[in-house]
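ok so I'm stuck.
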Amino acid sequence: CYVLNGVESGDLLGGFPTNRWIMFDGEEGCGKSLVARNNWARPLMAMGYFIFYFCTEQETDESDLEEQWGFPAGQYKLCHVTFVEDLITQMNNVLNGLEADKGKSFVNKRKVAFLVDSIGNLSNYGFKKQADRGDVKGDMGIIQKLLRGFFKLNTARAGRLGVPGFFTNHIYYDPNQMFGDKRKTGGGMGGKYNCSNINRL
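replied:
not stuck anymore, here's the structure
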């Protein structure tokens, strides 16, 4: 897709960067997951990358990825996550292993990439505990704070290791926005400051 190449790299033949984290946000059904799987993950796997696919929406499985999307078996790991704390822990564990193994996957010694689909669907342990007690008050901005910490912990480490990342995200409407676009990227400021390219579909 030449237009997408141009948007991402300034070059009609350039494509996505392989040492940066990028984000695609937008409303439901606009194609965020399609771009993530078809235009980003599949070409990386063709280049020999191993994909850690963190899925928060539980709408895919290995058979779907392999049969519908053409993911090669053994070249990705599908990780279903619900809580932002689990995403932080699992990605930190992967990066710890990569740092010890000089940037190669401890699974099969390939280069590694991260796909998170979608960061906007993550909950947190505190909200689960509220639900268990039957006393739900909301997350009080905790998810945004945890996501800011997640990006601060991992973005530079991944960059030094040459680990590209792709995040899909939701948007919300801010009725207090006086001028301009009332649609805002979900998840707080961590992703907005740490992703090199942010694209709205």
